């Protein structure tokens, strides 16, 4: 079963990294995965919760950062424990991998910290901001999925790395978002 899953993972990797590629995506995907590209979104969310929810917004920002930290550190721990080689570093595969970055990270491949971090934050935002954003709250998952896909597209992760990171991130996001919703919750403060 594991061997079959790893073969499927490799086939999906080469489809995304080689077959499903085009010039426009080659230019865009390396940027999509960069954290500073998403800085305006983080700034918008920080301003949105602070302006609309006052002190609760401040605690939302703290929980958002803690959620990120837990996902990042847990992902790094798993990555070190598993020790899976990245496709761009694997001596048997690296000549067939379209590596779109000027470097190949030296850390392990499973799980993807990008996926864990963004799915954790996406889940946290979905749970805590769903009332404010309505149906648009699902875009937080789309955002995380695009970043995970970009990791495979540029050649630094396998699809299973993204799936593992996504599951880890969703669990952490559910725990941190659930904690925030039970203890603090975003409610507008009205002055009369």
UniProtKB/TrEMBL annotation:
> InterPro entries recorded for this chain?
PAP2/HPO, PAP2/HPO_sf
- Alphabetized SUPFAM superfamilies for the sequence: Acid phosphatase/Vanadium-dependent haloperoxidase
Record's keyword terms, sorted: Membrane, Transmembrane, Transmembrane helix
Identify the residues that the record assigns to the Phosphatidic acid phosphatase type 2/haloperoxidase domain, covering every copy.
60-177
| UniProt keyword Cell wall biogenesis/degradation present | no
Where, by residue number, does the polypeptide cross the bilayer? 36-53, 136-156, 162-180
Per the record, the domain of life is Bacteria
What is the name attached to this protein's record? Undecaprenyl-diphosphatase
* Organism whose genome encodes this protein: Chitinophaga japonensis
Q: State the taxonomy lineage.
A: Bacteria, Pseudomonadati, Bacteroidota, Chitinophagia, Chitinophagales
């Amino acid at each position: 079963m594991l061997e079959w899953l790893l073969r499927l993972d490799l086939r999906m990797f080469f489809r995304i990294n080689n077959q499903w590629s085009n010039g426009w995506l080659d230019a865009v995907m390396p940027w999509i995965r960069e954290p500073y590209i998403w800085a305006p979104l983080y700034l918008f969310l920080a301003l949105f919760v602070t302006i609309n929810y006052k002190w609760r917004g401040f605690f939302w920002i703290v929980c958002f950062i803690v959620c990120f930290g837990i996902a990042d550190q847990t992902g790094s721990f798993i990555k070190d424990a598993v020790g899976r080689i990245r496709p761009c570093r694997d001596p048997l595969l690296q000549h067939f991998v379209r590596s779109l970055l000027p470097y190949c990270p030296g850390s392990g491949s499973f799980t993807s910290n990008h996926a864990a971090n963004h799915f954790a934050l996406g889940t946290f935002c979905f749970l805590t901001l769903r009332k404010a954003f309505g149906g648009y709250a699902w875009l937080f998952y789309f955002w995380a999925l695009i970043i995970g896909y970009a990791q495979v597209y540029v050649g630094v992760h396998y699809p299973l790395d993204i799936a593992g990171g996504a599951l880890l991130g969703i669990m952490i996001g559910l725990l941190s978002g659930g904690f925030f919703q039970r203890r603090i919750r975003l409610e507008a403060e009205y002055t009369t």
